[in-house]
């Protein structure tokens, strides 16, 4: 079993402290930032706040653990190939921090208050700590492998819905308009009439934290990256839920097309996505 500390320093305490500091800074910049750039297209935004938050997070982590590796969204060239290559290049690291400094940039830019900081720590490729912080609701979601998951100090458990027709399910609309988006829209079209309702709120990490907290019964999305999911996946598994890819293979850091649920509706969701040609091929 990996330890959660080096000397007296707790990995989890550093993850919590770092996510909180970055989140408070991001919140202070809401409606007060200048530079806005697009990465691939007008759908894919990045701001000085994304970059500043990542810098802050890197510095804080490296202050405590100078020999650890860090994979952060803003340190990687845009596009699916570069992000897969960056993950592979770092897969040898014993301790790898996986960071999305601001998940939900589009929401942040528009002042829609649903975004988060996501920080995970993997030991030899397995996520052992996951923290997601929503500065607007002041909710901190924390999981340690084998030790459960908590929001604001309260133990979380996934929802109890047994059928899709009783379930609130979330997804995302990926910015890749040519490939990932049409695949995901197949799923939206097929599932919308079958679930209680769908939510598309714009932060994959927060959607996953909500599955862990039992506020959503499931979530799927095509074309995500490791930093969107690493913390959320551990939160869900430690809350009693199930995380796979859209084909049903177990979660790992390399998963791009994710299916997460309370477990009970997992198979029903997977079948619907398969029937709708919405599992993706990335
Ligand atoms: P971001 O805000 O950190 O960029 C919404 O569907 C989700 O898609 C968000 O979690 C968003 O993360 C993510 N996302 C944004 N750009 C993306 C891209 N180019 N490829 C895949 N996912 C992306
Ligand atoms: Ca982004
Ligand atoms: Ca993200
Ligand atoms: Ca981001």
UniProtKB/TrEMBL annotation:
Mg(2+) binds at residues 73, 100, 102-103, 228. It is an enzyme of class 3 (hydrolase). InterPro entries: IMPase, Inositol_monoP_metal-BS, Inositol_monophosphatase-like, Inositol_monophosphatase_CS, Inositol_monophosphatase_SuhB. Its cofactor is Mg(2+). One of its GO terms (biological process) is phosphatidylinositol phosphate biosynthetic process. Keywords: Hydrolase, Magnesium, Metal-binding. One of its GO terms (molecular function) is metal ion binding. Its EC number is 3.1.3.25. Transmembrane segments: none annotated. It catalyses: a myo-inositol phosphate + H2O = myo-inositol + phosphate. Belongs to the inositol monophosphatase superfamily. Homodimer. The rRNA transcription and antitermination complex (rrnTAC) consists of RNA polymerase (RNAP), NusA, NusB, NusE (rpsJ), NusG, SubB, ribosomal protein S4, DNA and precursor rRNA; S4 is more flexible than other subunits. This is Inositol-1-monophosphatase.
